[in-house]
Description:
Blueprint: H1 8-21, E1 34-35, E2 40-43, E3 49-52, E4 54-55, E5 63-66, H2 79-85, H3 87-94, E6 101-105, H4 108-114, E7 122-123, H5 130-135, E8 139-140, E9 145-147, E10 151-154, H6 159-172, H7 174-184, E11 192-194
Parallel strand pairs: 1-4, 5-6, 6-10, 7-8, 9-11
Antiparallel strand pairs: 2-3, 9-10
Helix pairs in contact: 1-6, 2-4, 3-4, 6-7
Amino acid sequence: MVFDGVEELDCIAPYEVFSAAAMHSANGVRVRYVTTERPGPIRCAYGTVLQVKHRLAPQETDLIVVPGGGYTRRDGPGVWAEIGDGTLPRALAAAPREGLTISSLCTGAVLLSAAGLTRGRPCTTHHGAKSYLAEHGGLVKNARVVDDGDLVTAGGITSGLELGLWLVRRELGSDAATGVETMLEYEARGTVWQAP
């Protein structure tokens, strides 16, 4: 899921992990950038422009990743503008269904909170937004990735790599995750908190 003001690494890191996983999975993986707006250009936080060709279609996917961006800029594009507009939080609130995992990284958890998806659930976010998430009903855990089944959240900006690798391991197996780690020359770090 992308929107104007999205943090580049927040959306590019998991996209690359999942795309690489396609080479290590017999079942294949299809990865898309999507938006709740009309398909077209999305301007990221540092000026990168992504051409987005698809709208969010939760009924047609197994996983939605919601990145963050713009948390410290209340008057610019990013999570606050998306919350103010309301379209993205409403779409996320309507998305849950059996077989769908909704995930976030960094301040994407603030968007999940606005959609009511973190209330009473174990979750995490960027260290600068943990108090906000807790004040709005999230059960914040001190972990790099928090897996509560159909809700998986990850910490700050670089944790998108861990989020992607954890979900590859969970959904496609250890061989796929190890293959992606080897290809990227990156080993997952930090704690994964998993619901019992």
